[in-house]
């Protein structure tokens, strides 16, 4: 994926006539031909309204017509939309992603035009400015309005009335007598220029050297991929901001991709400290009006820096000059629904197609990226020191067999003693457990019945604060029953295992005077709630934080010195090929929260297997040895990145139907060298939202064209309407 892709196509926005092909944002494999009516100017990339069946739909002109349908039977384009044509590089990217993920190109296009109203003409609003007329009669109220308007800026009636402290009717009177004249201004706020108020920063010698190398990659104006590999707290963000500044100085746009969860006000404020304004944001919480503004601003080159979640990759940048993928190892970059794509991998493709540099930043790089560095495909820039006075935290394992918690409790006395010390010193502690709710399982003591979701093969998780049982896969909820639903025994149901709520209960018992906060997606709805809790932690209004993975990422808490991982073995339970790597990355990120200022940090991992390679690597800090061992293990069995994988899930509401279709599929699987088809087997989540699921896994050698194999297998395979077949190239979830 790192090699340069040939892209010479001079006809990027050529005017086309006669017949053109138009890609429509529906699950269609290829564009359809349409006629260009005489006198209409249509370019490659133009957004056009075309008839489809009885509807009209917005599509994108993809190129010359295919000529497959006779000219006299073709329908004509209805209208060309007034927006900059989709850049050729984005059209090629959409084709590339469709080909790689074995998805219809129309489905990928939908990712790129998903901003409601973006293609409508820009909205204007009516405002007023001081004209040359004087009022026929001057009053003190009128005088105040004229003074406010005297600065020359256009304002609405309401704004003028508010600033002058008068009623709307005073302003309207001045409009009627033409003292104020009407002007139309864009309804949307303009994008600030990040270079206008740029601040200087002081970097350490190591940071300065790293920043200079990244800036040199930007100056080269060609494709390169660089891993920015820096320990937590080493100032990676400040360093890559220098590359951002270099790209902006060239007049180029910049895309910063972050896992959605890391797109917090803390990140935006850091950006603002450096550049004097916030970047444009792109994520799922954005109001549709703001999505429209950003989409349009990006297309017209007015928005220069976008900080966004994975779908920002499909924005129509007019002149992109740099991509940064922060926390590049994060699994949140993998989209699981719809078109399954990995935003980090596709970002590298986008950079290659656009001949521009990409920077992948992480304290715990993915194995895929580490191997690319070793093989010389990616450059690497390292930051080995924490910034300022801070030292890396001291990590120890607590052997839960030797120092077990008291009966009915989950915290080892060793960890509790450390928490007492931190509290006495006025410092903060954080307990990490990647499990929402109170207890992951509710069990009947009388008959052994486990309460499961009726629609999924998964246990219902007890949420004690909300007094309900919830399925974390489909959202099903039910009140906690009084009696066992199986045997009817009263008061026989017991909660098994801890979630964050249960840990909070235990902490409140041990430290009744401590101020405790639970940080999990159930307690925090929306970005405002996040900001509030993180501000409270920074302001030392919280003593003990109990959190899920939300707390692991990117936050800087200067008073946090102790981190306790409640169940360090948790992620190792599933047999997924990346279980070790992911557990290491997550716990290393969590550990990195401790001791980020002057006070040294301590980290304790509660584990029943402290001898496990992941625990040893965390305690010793020997990350590269750990990665090398993981790489060897995967290479031995030909797993990614040394081999290729694709997952296929066949699902249907009817179990027998799903099984029959999966068997039929297995029968017609093509034979190819170096390709093994495993399955069908019931998926670990054999029932999801009421659908029975069966899985195939296609395992192939590195050089095999796995997409061609999948097309040969599935393209002509007809399935009943109720059956869904989802293909996932490079799967990250094996559920
Ligand atoms: Zn029972
Ligand atoms: Zn469910």
Helices, strands, pairings?
Layout: E1 15-16, E2 19-23, E3 32-35, E4 42-43, E5 47-52, E6 55-64, E7 79-80, H1 88-101, H2 105-112, E8 124-130, H3 140-149, H4 157-164, H5 168-176, E9 180-186, H6 205-219, E10 224-230, H7 236-249, E11 253-257, H8 265-275, E12 280-282, H9 288-299, E13 305-308, E14 320-326, H10 343-353, E15 357-362, H11 367-374, E16 379-383, E17 394-399, H12 413-424, E18 428-432, E19 441-444, E20 461-463, E21 468-470, E22 477-479, E23 493-496, H13 500-510, E24 516-519, H14 526-538, E25 544-547, E26 560-565, H15 579-591, E27 602-607, H16 613-620, H17 623-637, E28 643-652, H18 655-667, E29 675-688, E30 691-701, H19 706-714, E31 724-729
The structure holds zinc ion (2 copies).
Which descriptors apply to this entry?
binds zinc ion; six-stranded parallel β-sheet; about 725 residues; disordered N terminus; seven-stranded parallel β-sheet; alpha/beta
Task: Tell me what you see in this structure.
The chain is an alpha/beta fold and 735 residues long. The chain has 19 helices and 31 strands. A seven-stranded parallel sheet has the order 12-13-11-14-15-10-16, sandwiched between helices. A six-stranded parallel sheet has the order 17-27-26-18-25-24, sandwiched between helices. It has a five-stranded antiparallel sheet with strand order 3-2-6-5-7. A hairpin with a 2-residue loop joins strand 29 and strand 30. Helix 1 packs across helix 10. The N terminus is likely disordered. Bound molecules: zinc ion (2 copies). The site of one zinc ion (ZN) has 8 residues, from loops.
């Amino acid at each position: 994926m790192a090699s340069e892709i040939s892209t010479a196509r001079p006809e990027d926005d050529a005017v086309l006539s006669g017949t053109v092909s138009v890609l429509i944002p529906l699950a269609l494999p290829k564009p359809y031909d349409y006629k260009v009516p005489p006198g209409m100017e249509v370019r490659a990339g133009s957004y056009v309204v075309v008839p489809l069946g009885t509807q009209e739909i917005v599509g994108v002109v993809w190129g010359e017509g295919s000529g497959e349908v006779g000219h006299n039977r073709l329908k004509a384009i209805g209208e060309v939309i007034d927006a900059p044509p989709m850049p050729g590089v984005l059209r090629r990217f959409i084709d590339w992603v469709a080909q790689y993920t074995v998805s219809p190109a129309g489905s990928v296009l939908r990712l790129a035009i998903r901003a409601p109203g973006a293609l409508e003409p820009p909205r204007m609003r009516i405002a007023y400015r001081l004209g040359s007329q004087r009022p026929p009669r001057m009053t003190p109220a009128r005088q105040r309005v004229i003074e406010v308007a005297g600065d020359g800026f256009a304002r609405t009636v309401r704004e003028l009335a508010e600033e002058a402290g008068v009623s709307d009717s005073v302003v309207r009177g001045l409009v009627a007598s033409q003292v104020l004249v009407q002007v139309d201004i864009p309804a949307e706020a303009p994008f600030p220029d990040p270079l206008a108020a740029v601040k200087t920063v002081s970097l350490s010698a190591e940071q300065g050297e790293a920043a200079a190398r990244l800036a040199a990659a930007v100056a080269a104006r060609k494709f390169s991929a660089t891993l920015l590999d820096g320990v937590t707290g080493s100032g990676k963000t400040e360093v890559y901001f220098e590359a951002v500044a270099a790209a902006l100085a060239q007049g180029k746009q910049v895309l910063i991709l972050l896992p959605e969860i890391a797109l917090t006000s803390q990140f935006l404020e850091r950006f603002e400290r450096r550049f004097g304004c916030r970047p444009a944001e792109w994520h799922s919480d954005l109001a549709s009006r703001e999505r429209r503004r950003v989409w349009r601003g990006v297309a017209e080159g007015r928005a220069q820096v976008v900080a966004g979640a994975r779908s920002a990759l499909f924005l129509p940048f007019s002149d992109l000059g740099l991509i940064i993928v922060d926390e590049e190892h994060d699994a949140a970059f993998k989209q699981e629904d719809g078109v399954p794509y990995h935003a980090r991998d596709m970002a590298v493709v986008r950079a290659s197609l656009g001949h521009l540099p990409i920077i992948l930043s992480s304290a715990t790089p993915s194995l895929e990226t580490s191997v690319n560095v070793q093989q010389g495909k990616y450059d690497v820039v390292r930051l080995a020191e924490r910034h300022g006075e801070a030292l890396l935290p001291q990590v120890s394992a607590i052997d839960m067999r030797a120092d077990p918690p008291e009966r009915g409790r989950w915290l080892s006395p060793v960890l509790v003693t450390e928490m007492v010390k931190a509290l006495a010193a006025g410092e903060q502690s954080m307990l990490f457990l990647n499990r929402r709710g109170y207890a992951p399982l509710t069990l009947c003591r009388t008959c052994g019945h486990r309460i499961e979701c009726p629609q999924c093969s998964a246990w219902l998780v007890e949420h004690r604060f909300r007094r309900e049982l919830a399925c974390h896969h489909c959202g099903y909820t039910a009140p906690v029953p009084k009696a066992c639903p199986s045997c009817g025994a009263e008061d026989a149901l017991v909660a098994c295992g801890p979630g964050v709520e249960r840990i909070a209960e235990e902490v409140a018992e041990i430290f009744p005077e401590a101020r405790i906060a639970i940080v999990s997606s159930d307690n925090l709805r929306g970005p405002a709630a996040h900001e509030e809790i993180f501000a409270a932690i920074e302001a030392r209004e919280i003593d003990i934080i109990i959190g899920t993975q939300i707390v692991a990422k990117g936050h800087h808490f200067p008073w946090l010195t102790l981190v306790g991982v409640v169940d360090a073995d948790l992620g190792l339970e599933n047999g997924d090929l990346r279980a070790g790597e992911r557990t290491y990355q997550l716990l290393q990120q969590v550990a990195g929260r401790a001791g980020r200022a002057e006070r040294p940090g301590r980290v304790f991992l509660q584990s029943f297997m402290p001898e496990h390679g992941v625990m040893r690597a965390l305690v010793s800090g020997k990350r590269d040895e750990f990665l090398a061992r993981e790489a060897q293990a995967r290479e031995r069995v030909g797993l990614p990145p040394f081999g290729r994988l694709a997952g296929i899930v066949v699902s249907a509401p009817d179990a027998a139907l799903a099984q029959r279709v999966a068997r039929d599929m297995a029968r017609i699987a093509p034979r190819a060298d170096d390709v093994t088809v495993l399955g069908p087997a019931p998926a670990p989540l054999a029932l999801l939202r009421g659908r029975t699921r069966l899985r195939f896994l296609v395992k192939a050698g590195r050089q095999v064209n796995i997409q061609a194999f999948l097309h040969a297998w599935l393209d002509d395979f007809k399935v009943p309407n109720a059956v869904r077949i989802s293909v996932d190239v490079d799967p990250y979830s094996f559920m």
